Amino acid sequence: MPQIEVQETGDPGDGLAAVVALRRLADRLEDAAVEQAIGTGWSWSEVAEALGVTRQAVHKKHSHRLAAAGVSPRRRP
Amino acid sequence: MMRTDGGFVRVVLRLAQAEAVADQSPSVEAEHMLLALTAPQGGQARDLLAEAGLDHTAVQLALAADVERSLALVGVRLAAGRMPRSSYFPGRKPRLGASAKWVLHRAVAASRGGPANRIEPRHVLVGLLNARVGSVPRALDLAGIDRPALIARALAG
After folding, report:
1. Whole-prediction pTM value?
2. Which range of residues forms the domain containing residue A44?
3. Of A12, A43, A75, B142, which residue is 20 to 30 A from B59 by alpha carbon distance?
4. What confidence tens digit (pLDDT) does each residue in B83-131 have?
5. CATH, domain B7-80+95-156, list 3.20.20.30, 3.50.50.100, 1.10.1780.10, 3.40.50.1370
6. What are the backbone angles phi and psi of residue B96, rounded to the nearest 5°?
7. Contacts A–B by Cβ distance under 8 A
8. Quick check: B83 and A35 CB within 8 A?
């Protein structure tokens, strides 16, 4: 498995820019992963537990987006 | 208190908001304002950017290069060089982000003392180029843009 290697450039601007880019990546990753989970039969409670947040929080954040995209929770076979 | 005439500022913010939506961003940031200035409504700012080789695609590539470089510094490489995509539904309009507010403050400062005493596209461009830190100066530096020269041309009007 490749190792994560944090480079020290001596420029604090580089470190701060990396924080911004990582936050954006985490947000995008969450959006895509929640959509995939709900679309493949995960419940909101399961998604919430996997993310370590409350069901209410994850539902409030993602339900409108997924409903508009036609993605809705369904029972797993 | 920041005062604007509302004219071009309203136009550029509307365009920047559309850029933020396309970028799946919850907020309008400085980079979205830079992208907005490359639209036909960008007027003189658009022309100055084009003279420097920056059209919409070139700005997008420069911003993406900065994100890629920043992630690489912490050992992250994006597959195919792209962020993960998902269905996007802007439940509410992207709000004005802190970096965009700073741009507007600097645009107001750049417009002071001018003959028209109102914010023109070139003043917004100066507001963007005068940022010392953040994604816009980093991306422009990566793209090899001479920011001081561009600022001088914009201020010369």
Report:
1. 0.85
2. 40-77
3. A12
4. 888 887 666 789 999 999 999 999 999 998 776 678 999 999 999 999 9
5. 1.10.1780.10
6. -75, 120
7. 79
8. no
Instruction: Give residue A29's pLDDT band: very low, low, confident or very high (50, 70, 90).
Output: very high
Residue range B120-156, pLDDT digits in tens: 999 999 999 999 999 999 999 999 999 999 999 999 9
| Domain boundaries, given as residue ranges, for chain B | 7-80+95-156
Distance from CA of B53 to the nearest CA of A (A): 24
Q: How many whole angstroms separate alpha carbon B154 and alpha carbon A17?
A: 27
Our CA-based measurement puts residue B85 at a distance from the nearest CA of chain A, in whole angstroms, of 6
Q: How many structural domains is chain A composed of? A: 1
Q: In B51-136, at which residue ranges do the beta strands (DSSP E only) sit? A: 95-96
Match 């994604």 to its residue by tokens. B135
Cβ contacts of A26 within 8 Å, gap of 6 or more: none
